[in-house]
Write a structure and sequence with these properties.
4-stranded parallel beta sheet, 17 strands, about 25% helix, binds adenosine monophosphate
Length: about 350
Amino acid sequence: MTLIPPGSTIGIVGGGQLGRMLAMAAAQLGYKCHVYAPEEAPPAAEVAALFTRGDYDDEAALRRFGGKIDVATFEFENIGAGPLAALTGKAPLLPPREALEIAQDRLSEKIFIQGQHGRPVAFARVDSEAELKAALKETGTPAILKTRRFGYDGKGQVRIRNKAEAGKAWKAVKGEPCVVEAMVDFDAEFSIILCRSSEGEVAIWDAPRNVHSRGILERSTVPADKALQPAIDKAEALARRVADALDYVGVLTLEFFAVGEEALFNEMAPRVHNSGHWTIEGALTSQFENHIRAICGLPLGAVELVAPRVEMRNLIGDEADAWREILADRTAHLHLYGKDSARPGRKMGHVTRLLGLRGG
Ligand code: AMP
């Protein structure tokens, strides 16, 4: 891969908080970022050198954008094949397109993971109400119906408590192609966040234990409990196989359910991830910095923990209004994303605490 030296322009597709933190890390290394997003004033554009407002399916606009940058990356994954091809006409796209295409579809993602000898949650493809009813015989109930595409933060998901709810659930997803999954009675959730360089070097951060509420990440804690280590070891090995198989470059995240010593695969994201925000203060190099280093062909930074324990809590909706109280704790690192309207369920910021240090 050709080296993209500091001073070059990195194109970021998507304008949310992930893009914002990527742009901040890129600026530290002397890069300029050009953000492409459909919103009028997205959080990432505030901290980027350049901003183009455009829709994710506007191929002409993406082609022009691709001509103005030295490398393209993304923080928003749901871009169609045509627009992606338009974007990558001139500048390379990293992580590679194949990773994006697999992760865009919950079905192809699970099949791919099986091919890498991983174990997804018991699932079945569902394209009709009749198929859903048949699939529930396989998965049992409770189960969870998920649209194959365009789901995030619990969106596009319907829980099914018993077979009688199948019809109602199918109506709720409005005929979209889906997968149905067994509801897992897990011991814990955790994620593997790794970064692979263009030379094939892989760095893996300590796996955070993640707690979700209503489908949205509430907090991540590292290190995860010792009891999770056997499951984490298996998940790390799978994540390495996945990254190598895709000749991946950049940060890759895989989410898991721990059940005893097993790691059941939930989903993957070909990008920096909310459960890795703690790495900004809690690791020697953050997920954002290492992603920028990787896509520009630079060596990766070390990923070790800098404190005995680190905890990241999301500030969702009006929780961000408590910024004064949060700052009263001198050890808290407050991040606000500059979003103006605090809709319920919207991620407005996060707070990271390094624990077990002197002065903490
Ligand atoms: P997802 O967007 O698929 O990661 O789902 C968001 C969250 O919903 C997960 O992190 C879990 O907390 C919960 N969830 C999703 N699928 C399942 C499942 N099959 N069994 C149990 N909990 C689930």
